[in-house]
Amino acid sequence: MAMTEYNPPREPWVDIVFEDEHILVANKPSGLLSVPGRLAEHHDSLWSRLVAAYPDIQVVHRLDMDTSGLMLLAKHKEAERSLKKQFQYRLTHKVYYARVWGHPAQPQGEVDLPLICDWPNRPRQKVCFVDGKPSTTLYQVAKREEHTSIVRLLPITGRSHQLRVHMQMLGHPIVGDEFYSEGEAFEFSDRLALHAAELSFYHPASEVLQSVFVPCDFYLEAEAMIFNYFSPVPELPDYKMLPHP
């Protein structure tokens, strides 16, 4: 990880949105790692802040350091296996809000571009039609501002930096993105303006589909309406038909 200086926010230390005896959902701030990095000075992370109070806590998915928003964690191995299986089979849906530079021509659409690691410039990713992995993002413009737009993003796949690259390739990079924006677009925001606002998943104990929402600090009008904005939402596989631990 190319990180010259790591100064994660300390307030609040942990923002727990929901928890029960099986799972915990936290609102990760921008600038905090999801899990510890390789170097000792990069140990501070959402996981390391939680593990002191929850010794068996397990990360089942991650957010980029500069992305804020919802992270779902498992409190025990059985819940971890169930949730990881759901991410593996794309049983989850996530809605992000982003502020992008400029104004997309269409009010909504789809970006379908295969991605692969840009190895000499890692962790950057790039579009590659030969070796890239299929990557699809649905987007919808929520608000047009003077220089920027707020967009809702629904990733169908979960590739590294997918939303960031797809918005760049659409011609509207996410503001404040150190990897994929430059000039005015980069300088417009002091953080990457990307927030994981809503997450739907099957509860590992009850197997009931549920959704968790957390507000967006750079767009206070964000709403928890995952199944209304993207209609129809790509159909979820039948949870009970999947192989279980």
From TrEMBL:
Q: Could you confirm whether the keyword Isomerase appears in this record?
A: yes
For biological process, the GO terms are:
enzyme-directed rRNA pseudouridine synthesis; tRNA processing
EC number(s) recorded for this UniProt protein: 5.4.99.-
Keywords for the protein's UniProt record, in alphabetical order: Isomerase, rRNA processing, tRNA processing
Tell me which residues make up the Pseudouridine synthase RsuA/RluA-like domain. Answer: 22-168
Active site as annotated: 64
Matching entries from CDD domains are given as: PseudoU_synth_RluA_like
Catalyses which reaction(s)? a uridine in RNA = a pseudouridine in RNA; uridine(746) in 23S rRNA = pseudouridine(746) in 23S rRNA; uridine(32) in tRNA = pseudouridine(32) in tRNA
Q: Does the keyword Lipid metabolism apply?
A: no
Q: What does this protein do?
A: Responsible for synthesis of pseudouridine from uracil.
Which PANTHER family does this chain map to?
DUAL-SPECIFICITY RNA PSEUDOURIDINE SYNTHASE RLUA, MITOCHONDRIAL RNA PSEUDOURIDINE SYNTHASE
Indicate what this protein is called per its UniProt record: Pseudouridine synthase
